[in-house]
Design brief:
Elements (H helix, E strand, L loop, with lengths): L2 E7 L5 H5 L4 H10 L2 E5 L2 E7 H19 L6 H12 L3 H5 L8 E2 L5 E2 L4 H12 L13 H14 L26 H20 L1
Antiparallel strand pairs: 1-3, 2-3, 4-5
Helix pairs in contact: 2-4, 3-4, 6-7, 7-8
Length: 201
């Protein structure tokens, strides 16, 4: 193994967000890649296997781009950046997707694609009249779709948002559920209402 040492200067204003609380972001990268990574003032010192150091630099560049755009990387962003760099994904190394904030929630939180899959989904929604999003629960399909709808409404690209959702029955027929039609359908629309409330208040 070829061992090496590198130093990386960071903008003093960006350093706290990039390093994380008590340098936890740097520790996560160092542990994952098996290198020595420490910070002093606004300089990062890296030592270890050359390939691992280069991977760490690629991850730090991704996180730096996020911080420059007002985003604060946490463990999930670092984990994803590490996975992309380890897989040798060139698109992931460039990592342009955090640069675009899609919407700001009612509480001031920035909404942006966090993975390449989410970026492709957002691009598909933007470029096509009809988009099907298929994937596991909790991957942001509904939330991102509502975000794009609210963004289009605020930009006056559309005049209204129509909420539709398939009522997938879970063991019971809809007709047997209590209440009128609105009360029967509400639980299926709840994720859409929640996303709209989060974005618009």
């Amino acid at each position: 193994m070829n061992q090496g040492n590198l130093t990386l200067k960071v903008d003093p204003e960006a350093a706290p967000a990039l390093f994380g609380q008590y340098d936890q972001n740097l520790r996560q990268i160092a542990e994952e890649l098996g290198i020595d990574l420490r910070a002093q003032d606004n300089t990062i010192y890296l030592s270890g296997d050359n390939e691992a150091i280069n991977q760490a630099l690629a991850v730090l560049e991704q996180l730096k781009a996020q911080v420059e755009n007002g985003l604060f990387p946490g463990p999930s962003e670092i984990r994803y950046a590490l996975d992309l760099v380890k897989s040798g994904n060139e698109t992931g190394k460039k990592n342009d997707f955090p640069r675009e904030v899609l919407q700001v929630t009612n509480r001031g939180k920035k909404v942006y694609p966090r993975t390449l899959g989410q970026k492709q989904y957002v691009d598909a929604i933007r470029e096509n009249s009809l988009t099907f999003g298929i994937g596991p629960a909790g991957t942001g399909k509904t939330y991102l779709a509502v975000t794009m709808a609210v963004s289009a409404l605020q930009k006056k690209e559309v005049a209204r948002i129509i909420l539709t959702r398939p009522a997938v029955e879970a063991g019971e027929k809809l007709g047997f559920l209590p209440g009128d039609l609105q009360e029967k359908v509400d639980p299926y629309l709840r994720p859409l209402y929640d996303a709209l409330f989060d974005l618009l208040g």
